[in-house]
Amino acid sequence: xxxxxxxxxxxxxxxxxxxxxxxxxxxxxxxxxxxxxxxxxxxxxxxxxxxxxxxxxxxxxxxxxxxxxxxxxxxxxxxxxxxxxxxxxxxxxxxxxxxxxxxxxxxxxxxxxxxxxxxxxxxxxxxxxxxxxxxxxxx
Length: 139
Hints:
five-stranded antiparallel β-sheet, three-stranded antiparallel β-sheet, mainly beta, CATH 2.40.50, 2 domains, globular, 1 helix, 39% strand
């Protein structure tokens, strides 16, 4: 049986910088060049100052686990062999309220805890298809 391909990456100029950075194993978040506010999910205009001068900026990838859940139902056929997995909301250290939805890896759900320190890592799902995931610091 042939393994299904992962879901298609969005063909969206607003998020292209994010996926290009992930292929380089870097985490970039949209930032307003006028007021410095980080914005995620990317938008065409800054929600803080209404500037259109926005671009991707590399961030540290450090954060804390805000919330998580373990899922047993794959959302796409590519992930059938990967369940269960942990879906996590990570609060990035760069700005209060800056959060990213991702996967938590390298830990069992029973050992995960809200507030734990996490660090970005990258998983290659297919050739040139890399996603940011997070793992507990020290693992």
